Amino acid sequence: MSYTLDEIATQPECWLRAADAAVEAADALPRAGEDVAVIGCGTSLYMARSYAALRESAGHGRTDAFAASQFPAGRRYERVIALTRSGTTSEVLRLIEELGRDARTAVPVTAITADGATPVAASAGQVIVLPFADERSVVQTRFATTALALLRAHLGEDLAQAVEDARGALLDPLDPTLVAAEQVTFLGDGWTCGLADEAALKMREAAGSWTESYPAMEYRHGPISIAAPGRAVWVFGPVPAGLDEEIARTGATLVHTGGLDPLAGLILAQRLAVARAEAAGLDPDRPRNLTRSVVLG
Question: Most C-beta atoms within 10 A of its C-beta, which of 26, 62, 137, 235?
């Protein structure tokens, strides 16, 4: 068994601990009504997008999400949340430095990381450390979902059902037709768009698979053209009216995890990525062309 799979299996317990951490770290997290930006790279960016959609839909205030390298110059926020597992990602550290450079316009920055003994701890004004969610793996799984669980708990969500669903998702057998599928497209709606993007990233990283992701309502506008027998369409959140019939006509397999909390549905996609890697003779612990943190010169 890979340590990636080992780490996937710990997520329910990590989420429970994240709910407690959200209470302890409440002062470092956004207050209702604040204008907030959330930044990250790769997986952390997708978690940022999910949180931003959840926070706005819950009425807590304007919340934008950006790749750290694409933060809009001159735009002002009352708080910035930086997600970085390693605490060493170059783009995140550079942006935090830029945001604090002018004391007259400095923005409070809270970093959420797995390791407090890293450069981000010295750069951000406040740091929330989740060491129990740290990972050996290059491919992020439990840290990302645990950070999002913490942020969901801070919004007032009860994570009990998500935890139970996650435990079930670890036990549910994977459909062998999905392991063997030529191609998988992930769709989301609202906050689950970030989860769809993240599921696709896991498939690329761990298994080198051809995979795509879109907002569910956008799928009809071109991407459905690649749906075919031997391929699959996986939907997080509600299936738009009529889309299931359209997918059925293509011969593609429709997967819908609507009975599960969407974050628990992501666990199934993580497991599928590992299974597809192993079926292809790849090592999910050693993905091609990737390192655990991107540190630029």
Answer: 235
pLDDT tens digits for 92-121? Answer: 999 999 998 866 668 999 999 999 999 999
Q: Is the dihedral of CA 237, 262, 260, 233 positive or negative?
A: positive
281 φ/ψ sector (left φ>0, alpha ψ -120 to 50, else beta):
left
| DSSP secondary structure, 9-59, as one string | HTHHHHHHHHHHHHHHTGGGSPPTT--EEEEESTHHHHHHHHHHHHHHHTT
Q: Provide the 8-state DSSP code for 70.
A: G
pTM exceeding the 0.90 threshold for the entire prediction: yes
pLDDT value at position 297? 52
**CB of 22 closer than 8 Å to CB of 128:** no
Alpha helices, DSSP H, located in the chain: 3-9, 11-24, 43-57, 90-99, 119-123, 142-154, 160-171, 176-179, 192-207, 243-250, 262-279
Tell me how far CA of residue 273 lies from CA of 3, 226, 277, in angstroms. Answer: 14, 20, 6
Pairing of strands 253-256, 36-40: unpaired
Burial letters 67-82, b for 16+ CB under 10 A, else e: bbeebeeeeebebbbb
Return the structure tokens found at 105: 């316009």
